[in-house]
Amino acid sequence: MATTYETRYASSPNETKQMDTESLRKNFLIEKLFEENKIHLVYTHYDRYIAGGVMPVSETIKLETIDALKAPYFLERRELGIINIGGAGTVTINGDVYDIDFKEALYVGKGNEEVLFASNDASNPAKFYLNSAPAHQVFPIKKVTKADAEIVELGSLETANHRIINKLLVASVVKTCQLQMGMTELKTGSVWNTMPAHTHDRRMEVYCYFEVPQGQSVCHFMGQPQETRHIWMQNEQAVISPPWSVHAGAATSNYTFIWGMAGENMDYGDMDACAITELR
């Protein structure tokens, strides 16, 4: 079977602050997203969010349902966000083909039974990063490029966080039930993302780090503002952020990361900022 998945249960702040390095990584880090002709998924009990990846090389790969969904097909009661971080490829939805190139996104609404992934060139395969959340309403399929995105420039080189935020699958660009996704690109010389850090208790988040140069790493910070922890991450890995946790990272080089969110609130700006000097 091309699809594999694992389940991650929710952890409380009190439980998490007792975890050692191995436990933190086991509960929150998604180490393997992409494997040739495979789909790897993680089903988390934070807002029933699913994150994963598919890398079709020599085959067309179908998105199959998983036992945890108890559904005849994957999107029976779910919506799906896709961002390609590899070579050019196609996503075929019920026979309709969508060309998805590097850093382009596709929103797929609830009720679409057949989702197929393929690469244009086996020597430079597509890497489709997937996020999915429960959906209560049907919205149309929509492809979103960086030209379509809502773009915000934040930070500065002086504070090492000069970055471009590309809001791809957000309410101002495409209609979704609760899923939001975007991509933040750090400028050369900048290493900090999402700083000052924040929490948003009404939605959870997943970060996927990529374009991390060979030999470099990202240090991702999580936990309550007064009780932070860190996880060292490599290129093309993801990390789960609970609603009560900060989510910020610094790396040994500039990089790009994808943020995906779901929960009760669709207001992108609904967050509780944490003063840098008050982090512990």
UniProtKB/TrEMBL annotation:
Q: What does this protein do?
A: Catalyzes the isomerization of 5-dehydro-4-deoxy-D-glucuronate to 3-deoxy-D-glycero-2,5-hexodiulosonate.
Cofactor(s) required, per the database record: Zn(2+)
Q: Does the keyword Cell wall biogenesis/degradation apply?
A: no
Q: Which family does it belong to?
A: Belongs to the KduI family.
Give the gene that encodes this protein. kduI
Instruction: Recite the UniProt cofactor note for this protein.
Output: Binds 1 zinc ion per subunit.
Recite the UniProt keywords alphabetically: Isomerase, Metal-binding, Zinc
The pathway this protein participates in, as annotated, is: Glycan metabolism; pectin degradation; 2-dehydro-3-deoxy-D-gluconate from pectin: step 4/5
Provide the species name. Olivibacter domesticus (Pseudosphingobacterium domesticum)
The record's listing under Pfam families reads: KduI
Q: Supply the enzyme class, top level.
A: isomerase
HAMAP family from the entry? KduI (MF_00687)
Annotated membrane-spanning segments are none
Q: What is this protein called?
A: 4-deoxy-L-threo-5-hexosulose-uronate ketol-isomerase
